[in-house]
Amino acid sequence: DRDTDKKRIEELLEENMVLEIAQKQSMNESAHLGWELEQLSKNTDLADSEKSFVFELNECASSRILKLEKDNQSLQNTIQELRDASLTSRESNLKFVELEKENQQLSKKIEKLQNQIEKEKQSNQDLETLSEDLIKDKEQLQVVMETLKADKDRQIKDLKQENDHL
């Protein structure tokens, strides 16, 4: 039983390390995506690419959250299995407590990532709205420019006609 417990603990430690690595990668990807989003927000002419980037960002973040939640659930199941097995060795109990703490930390990190994603989604929506407003303003300015050009052409025509009469 102790050998089995030790092997199980080692497996849990490996899973925990994998989760930590995945979390760090997720945080790095999130920071990088945030940087890319900031770069896109500086160029409002790229509205279409911004929309695809927003979609890609949301897909990537959702995928990462699902993976972390799955890993978290796996850890919770493992913890429950350890509880059910009523492990009595002191070493196993210490590992169990460590794993439970790590699980709680992962849960907090998942919550933080979800909050961050929500903020990024809101920011993306704000940028999309701004981009749409800028496009509308541009269209309005084009209409004004066309009107002014037509007025200018009419004035030139009127002046030429007056000049011809003189």
Question: What can you see in these coordinates?
Answer:
Keywords: Coiled coil. It comes from Piaya cayana. This is DAPLE protein. With 166 residues, the chain is an all-alpha fold. The protein has one domain. 93% of the residues lie in helices and 0% in strands. It is built from 3 helices and no strands. Helix 1 (2-41) runs parallel beside helix 3 and helix 2 packs antiparallel against helix 3. The longest helix has 76 residues, at 90-165. The radius of gyration is 30 Å and the shape is rod-shaped. The relative contact order is 0.11. The mean pLDDT is 83.
Give a short summary of the structure.
The chain is mainly α and 166 residues long. It has helices spanning 2-41, 47-84, 90-165. It has one domain (1-129).
Task: List its traits.
166 residues; mainly alpha; 0% strand; DAPLE protein; dynein light intermediate chain binding; microtubule binding; coiled coil
Per-chain topology:
Elements: H1 2-41, H2 47-84, H3 90-165
Largest sheet: none
Structural class: mainly alpha
Q: How large, in whole angstroms, is the Cα Rg?
A: 30 Å
Tally of individual domains: 1
The number of helical elements comes to 3
Average pLDDT reading: 83
Number of strands: 0
Q: Helix content range of the residues, please?
A: over 70%
Helix-strand pattern: HHH
Low-confidence stretches: none
Span between termini: 115 Å
Backbone shape: rod-shaped
Question: Which band does the percent of strand residues land in?
Answer: under 5%
